[in-house]
Design goal:
This protein is an alpha+beta fold and 363 residues long. The protein contains 11 helices and 13 strands. Strands 2-1-5-4-3 form a 5-stranded antiparallel beta sheet, sandwiched between helices. Strands 7-9-10-12-11 form a 5-stranded mixed beta sheet. The chain has a 3-stranded antiparallel beta sheet with strand order 6-8-13. The relative contact order is 0.10.
Length: 363
């Protein structure tokens, strides 16, 4: 338990109230223990947090275990760095999920509190929602373009046969043909030339259709360990479940990864008996990452097709976020996929495959 020691009276705190941005101060109060020392007036206004409740004790006694663990990890990392530490985090505040872009910087401490951080936070919930919705719209348009490309390829393929027959027939007709000076030979040759030109145009069209039409989107560097901790804090804030996750830095599409893992972890937390395991692997030859989310719940019936059923259901954004069908389409738009892995024993195992690579696996 916290020893109840009071913090120094610091005129710096009152100065922060004149700043029109969300500012907070954090002190280290023990090994791997932190206490929020102050929330400025603007922060209290935008977050609806009760400063007396938040600052009364170290964060592990104030916040749910998972959220406290995430916060402590961020604060510890910031103290280890010489430069300001900036990150986006997903937090559940008063039952509402919000995204915050936070910058933590070392600040002059006091004799009793030498390790002090000043944080500046900007709520970016609307921005994140627009980003996710944009990714969904891109997935829809990618699917539509894929359908058009398929139709164009089939149409071109169906036309090649008749045009090739025209070329062959004109060659047969011209073989030994005697021109009587009425221009019929020229007309037959013109028909053959038109057919040959059309065949070449169809060949060019099929070549273009066969090319990879995906956008060249540069990958993001994603701290997978921090992302998993953030999602774990949302899925299991009270820390009732045993959740394991990898420690790694990866390079992939951050939005698609976050949306996919969020959906699978929500589903796993809903049905598990007490354990969720998140696994990470890569296929260097294919340039893909494979992330698995496994739980020990009842799983799916033997003959069930959860992915096929999800694709038939509504795939729009709902109050809970993406449905499984929308996740499948979102992954497909980035060259990825979602699989249901059938494994012996209880529970369900879902695997996300997405273009990317592991940059720095944990030792």
């Amino acid at each position: 338990m916290y020893d109840g020691q009071t913090l120094d009276v610091d005129p710096f705190f009152s100065t922060l109230d004149f700043i029109g941005s969300a500012i907070f101060v954090v002190d280290r109060v023990g090994r791997d223990r932190f206490r929020i020392a102050y929330l400025n007036a603007h922060y209290r206004k935008v977050s609806n947090l009760d400063m007396a409740a938040v600052t009364r004790a170290p964060i592990d006694e104030v916040f749910p275990p998972r959220i406290a663990q995430v916060l402590a990890g961020n604060y510890a990392r910031a103290l280890q760095q010489s430069e300001p530490y900036c990150y986006d985090e997903l937090l559940a505040v008063d039952g509402r999920e919000t995204w915050w872009r936070t910058t933590l910087s070392r600040a002059p401490g006091t004799a009793r509190r030498p390790d002090r951080l000043v944080g500046a936070a900007v709520e970016v919930t609307d921005l994140k929602r627009k980003e996710i919705r944009l990714a969904s719209e891109i997935a829809d348009r990618t699917q539509s373009l894929s359908d058009v490309r398929t139709l164009a390829a089939l149409s071109a393929h169906d036309l090649r046969g008749p045009l090739a027959n025209v070329v062959s027939l004109t060659d047969i007709v011209l073989d030994g043909f005697s021109d009587l000076g009425d221009g019929k030979r020229d007309m037959i040759e013109a028909c053959g030339d038109v057919a040959r030109t059309s065949l070449k145009s169809l060949g060019d069209l099929m070549a273009r259709v066969g090319e990879d039409g995906s956008d060249d989107v540069p990958p993001d560097r994603v701290d997978l360990s921090r992302l998993c901790r953030d999602l774990t804090a949302i899925a299991d804030p009270a820390g009732r479940l045993a959740i394991t996750s990898p420690e790694a830095l990866v390079e992939t599409d951050e939005v698609v990864l976050q949306v996919s893992l969020r959906n699978l972890m929500d589903n796993a937390a809903r049905y598990t008996r007490g354990r969720i395991d998140i696994g990470l692997a890569e296929d260097r030859a294919q340039g893909t990452l494979m992330l698995t989310v496994a739980d020990d719940g009842p799983g799916f019936p033997k003959d069930a097709d959860p992915l096929g059923r999800a694709m038939q259901a509504r795939t729009d954004l709902s109050a809970r976020g993406f449905g499984l069908g929308a996740v499948i389409r979102l992954l497909a738009s980035r060259g990825g996929k979602l699989d249901h892995l059938r494994r012996p024993g209880p529970g369900a195992t879902m695997q996300v495959t997405l273009p990317g690579r592991i940059l720095n696996p944990a030792s």
